[in-house]
Amino acid sequence: MTINHDLFKLTNLPERPNKPRENGITMVMDKGLSTFQAASLAESGEHIIDLVKLGFGTSLVTPKLKEKIAIYKQAGLDIYLGGTLFEAYLVRNQIEDYKRLIDNLGISTIEISDGSISLEHEKKCELISQFAKEYKVLSEVGSKDAEKIIPPYAWIEMMENELQAGAWKVVAESRESGTVGVFRGSGEIRTGLVAEIERKINIDNVIWEAPQKSQQVWFIKLYGSNINLGNIAVNEVSALEALRLGLRGDSFDFFI
Amino acid sequence: MTINHDLFKLTNLPERPNKPRENGITMVMDKGLSTFQAASLAESGEHIIDLVKLGFGTSLVTPKLKEKIAIYKQAGLDIYLGGTLFEAYLVRNQIEDYKRLIDNLGISTIEISDGSISLEHEKKCELISQFAKEYKVLSEVGSKDAEKIIPPYAWIEMMENELQAGAWKVVAESRESGTVGVFRGSGEIRTGLVAEIERKINIDNVIWEAPQKSQQVWFIKLYGSNINLGNIAVNEVSALEALRLGLRGDSFDFFI
Amino acid sequence: MTINHDLFKLTNLPERPNKPRENGITMVMDKGLSTFQAASLAESGEHIIDLVKLGFGTSLVTPKLKEKIAIYKQAGLDIYLGGTLFEAYLVRNQIEDYKRLIDNLGISTIEISDGSISLEHEKKCELISQFAKEYKVLSEVGSKDAEKIIPPYAWIEMMENELQAGAWKVVAESRESGTVGVFRGSGEIRTGLVAEIERKINIDNVIWEAPQKSQQVWFIKLYGSNINLGNIAVNEVSALEALRLGLRGDSFDFFI
Prior knowledge:
- With 256 residues, the first copy, chain A, is of the alpha/beta class.
- Chain A has helices spanning 5-8, 35-45, 65-74, 83-91, 95-105, 121-132, 152-165, 191-200, 213-223, 237-244, and strands at residues 26-30, 51-54, 78-81, 109-112, 136-141, 169-172, 206-209, 229-233.
- In chain A, helix 2 (35-45) packs parallel to helix 3, helix 6 runs parallel beside helix 7 (152-165) and helix 7 runs parallel beside helix 8.
- The longest helix of chain A is centred in the middle third of the chain and has 14 residues, at 152-165.
- Chains in contact: A-B, A-C, B-C.
- Chain A binds chain B through residues 2-5, 7-12, 36, 39-41, 43-44, 46-48, 235-239, 241-242, 245-249, 252-253, 256, and chain B through 31-37, 55-65, 84-85, 87-89, 91-92, 94, 97, 100-101, 104-105, 115-117, 144, 175.
């Protein structure tokens, strides 16, 4: 669907699937928005945002958190708490408290990650498998540490295992800045790594964190309008949707 | 006028013309704001923003677009759709649909550009001339492609022709980033180019896209408080106005 | 206090003092927010923001300024006008008008700075001393000019004198960008300078302007969760609080 199609009548735009959808997903990073800002984001994003991540531990310091979650849900946006918070509970042996928290918040999607902790991969897959019985699980692959370079075969193996264990999608970590994981410190893309992953993993099962515009352009150019993209800044949501439709200078000639 | 003059009583501030005005224009880039954000921008910008550009194709993916336009109009802000959208219609031979769209939206200012398409300059001037009969026309000069370096004489010739054809102002393209056109990829200013343009073209007829603070400072230092500036980010509007008044560190000693 | 502690039950978080407090202070830079945005910031920041600076001269161009100040006060946020505005009055010999202005606005905290003007240090201390009788004074040390490198002993001497003269806290200037003062042009920290200051000055009496995340991380790592930080961007307030609590990748292992 295209939001103002009847008004604009612009022809030959790339198809975008309706929500809920398995590809063409846009995941947004909320770093502690107020209820005012959430209402604003929900208005802009009702049809184009799939997932809102309450980034790292910001949910813990957000007043009116339940009201905010209600606003997002009302607009059909799926919410989850950033993986760093999950890790904070895990490292403190408070996983049961974590489950109580998300149940209390009415959240049914969770992120299982090990970006800031050491976690045996087998243990991570067990956690995925266990949580997948009750929740929709996003599992994140890749370290937040720019020094830890994971070779392509290991990326693929982890992604395969985590999907096998029950993850709905795997998320390719890049941080809010887009400077680790499939990106170099400069934000440049490790194109060979992405290509190898794409040969082995169904790309609809991956959400690529790609906060920088140049990264978004690269993914859309190579893999089309409906590539799953994440860690989008709240004020870039409409701009990304225009980019997906070839209605920005950077992608203008991809689809005509 | 200076907004809080009666309250602040600060003397020796540079004069700023009242709206509607021919110079001292601030053009803002709206990349898909919600109605909440538009109301907020309208409050801040009622007296200091002249033009709001609904950037590239974001208007097509903005829910409550008509409500948003009404909010801006109510506050006396002139709205137009980004030139990239015009080009999307033009390249699809849908110019009549474009006219119906803007009439339907109650928009009377349009941007005619060729930043993403190839368009014979004669044809562009014909379009300007044709639209100028019914609309206020902004015509944009310069490519979005950093590789296409246009020499000064060609900038001047195009600007002269487009103004002659009926453009209200010509806009010097620099993108949202401020890295093409009169700027180098680094954002640095092609000072010789600007100086040559200024010698030949009445500078009140040009709007310089200058999203970076250093670029704004440079233009204000050289051409004064009332230089026309565009592609200002929504959260920099008041900061730019303070800069124009010499009330920011960067411009503090320009006017005293 | 930790905002959602009862809901989250996450153990072993660093202690944060309740407001009003002498350390752990977060000072935010408001560059001309509307009343909508101020209400949003007040919601997010009621418990975690101490001070809102109406940056440089933006207050002069903000419509509904009094309504905005009322919103902040209502939420318990202390407001003051940026030092650049103070300097604009001082350089025009309008200090009495400045006093009338802040009294009229109901503002009781002021910043005395010389970032954009030349001011004998003795005269500055006199001003501090005079204003400290009626107002809470923040005095700012450091130039906005990247060329003016002040040696450590001079930083320390100025800070000592200004605290002695009656300043509530001294603010270490770094601009909105974090590229002068205790930072290099690249944003890198002059670590030796900070260390020397910290040896001589009670660090609770200093507010470090540190707009960049890497700068915030560095200060929190070295001096703990309750280091006083300033010039925080409005959309980074919750993220900084999470950082202080070790709930962001960058600070995850500082406190466990």
